[in-house]
Write a structure and sequence with these properties.
The chain has helices at 2-28, 36-43, 64-79, 84-96, 104-116, 137-142, 147-159, 165-182, 187-200, 217-230, 234-242, 248-263, 270-275, 278-294, 296-302. The chain is mainly α. Helix 3 (64-79) packs across helix 14, helix 10 (217-230) runs antiparallel to helix 11 (234-242) and helix 11 packs antiparallel against helix 12 (248-263). The structure holds manganese (II) ion (MN) (2 copies). Residues 32, 247, 249-250 line the site of one manganese (II) ion.
C-alpha cells in the first residue's frame, strides 16, 4: 500500500517534469535571443505564454527542446526500452519534417547519423552547447532507480550530437537532480548534491550569478540553478529564468523539467496549461507514465 502511494507521487513528479519542460519552452521561446533589458522594455515581467518572437510562434507552441525530448521518449516507449538507434532515427525523421528550429550542432550530428549511421559524434571542443541537456529529461525518468544507467544513457543520447565534457556533465547532473526530486529531496539536499558535483567542474558555480543565459551549457545551467534555487514555486522558477533572456526557451525547458519534478504536476499554473495544445499535454502525460513504468524503479514497484 505504501509502495503504491509512493509510486503515485513519483509518477506525479515525472509528469510534472515532462509537462514543465514543454511549458518552459513555450514560455521562453517568444523571448529567445532577447536581452533581459529588451524583455523588460517590451513586457515588463514576462509571466504569460504569449507566442511570437523570432520564430513567430503561436501561443503555446513548443520548439526543438520539446520536440527532441519527445523523440527520445517516443523511441524508448515504442521500443519498450533503451534503443539508441531508434532514438537517432526519431531525430532523423524529425529533422526531415522541417521543424520550426534546429540547433547547428544537433543538425550536424543528426546528418552524420543519416549519412554514416554514426551514433557517436567525435570529440569537439565547440560542442559545449546546451542541445544535449535540453532533451535529457525522458532519460532521467527511464533510469529512475539506477544511477549507473542514468550516467550511461544520459551520455549516450548526448553523444549523438554533442561530444563535450561539460555537456556530458550537465546531462548527468540534471538527471541526478531530477531523480533526487523523485525521492522527495528538499532544496537544501539538492543544493548539497550540486555542491559536490561542482567540485568536479567548478565552471558551473552559479553564486554569485553572472547573469549570462546563452546557449553555452555553462551559462545555461548557471541560469537554471540560480533561478531554481531562488524560486519559491514552479511559476517563479520559470518566470525568473526566462526573463533572463538569451536562450530563454532552453533555459525555460530545463528549469521547467527540474521545477516540475520538484513541485509536482499540481503546481503548474492552470492558465499556462490551458495555453498548451491539449493533445501534446495528453501525450506527454502518457509518455512520462510509460517511461516511469519501464524504469528500474517502476519495474520494481509494478512488477
Ligand atoms: Mn528551442
Ligand atoms: Mn533555445
Amino acid at each position: 500500500m505504501r509502495a503504491t502511494l509512493r509510486y503515485e507521487e513519483v509518477r506525479d513528479r515525472a509528469r510534472g517534469a515532462f509537462l514543465g519542460l514543454a511549458i518552459g519552452d513555450a514560455l521562453g521561446a517568444p523571448v529567445e535571443f532577447m536581452t533581459s533589458g529588451e524583455i523588460k522594455a517590451k513586457y515588463g515581467l514576462l509571466k504569460e505564454i504569449v507566442g511570437g518572437g523570432w520564430l513567430r510562434l503561436k501561443p503555446g507552441q513548443v520548439t526543438d527542446d520539446t520536440d527532441m525530448a519527445l523523440c527520445i521518449a517516443r523511441a524508448v516507449v515504442s521500443s519498450r526500452g533503451w534503443d539508441l538507434t531508434a532514438i537517432a532515427q526519431h531525430f532523423a525523421r524529425w529533422l526531415k519534417s522541417k521543424p520550426v528550429d534546429v540547433g547547428d550542432t544537433c543538425r550536424r550530428g543528426i546528418r552524420d547519423f543519416m549519412l554514416k549511421g554514426q551514433l557517436e559524434t567525435p570529440y569537439n571542443e565547440w560542442d559545449g552547447g546546451n542541445g544535449a541537456v535540453m532533451r535529457l529529461l525522458p532519460v532521467a525518468i527511464l533510469t529512475a532507480g539506477d544511477d549507473e544507467l542514468l550516467r550511461e544513457y544520459a551520455v549516450a543520447q548526448a553523444r549523438i550530437t554533442h561530444n563535450h565534457l561539460l555537456s556530458d556533465a550537465a546531462c548527468v547532473w540534471l538527471g541526478k537532480l531530477v531523480q533526487l526530486c523523485f525521492d522527495s529531496a528538499s532544496k537544501s539536499r539538492l543544493r548539497r548534491e550540486l555542491e559536490t558535483l561542482l567540485g568536479e567542474h567548478p565552471q558551473f558555480k552559479f553564486d554569485p550569478y553572472r547573469g549570462l543565459a546563452s546557449g553555452y551549457v555553462v551559462d545555461t545551467m548557471q541560469t537554471v540553478f540560480h533561478h531554481f534555487f531562488r524560486g519559491k514555486d514552479f511559476e517563479s522558477c520559470l518566470v525568473g529564468t526566462v526573463n533572463q533572456g538569451g536562450d530563454a526557451d532552453t533555459t525555460g525547458a530545463i528549469v521547467g523539467a527540474l521545477a516540475g519534478a520538484y513541485y509536482g504536476e499540481e503546481s503548474i499554473p492552470q492558465r499556462w496549461r490551458k495555453k498548451m495544445d491539449k493533445n501534446l499535454m495528453n501525450e506527454i502525460t502518457r509518455l512520462a507514465e510509460e517511461l516511469l513504468r519501464l524504469s528500474p524503479y517502476g519495474r520494481g514497484v509494478t512488477g
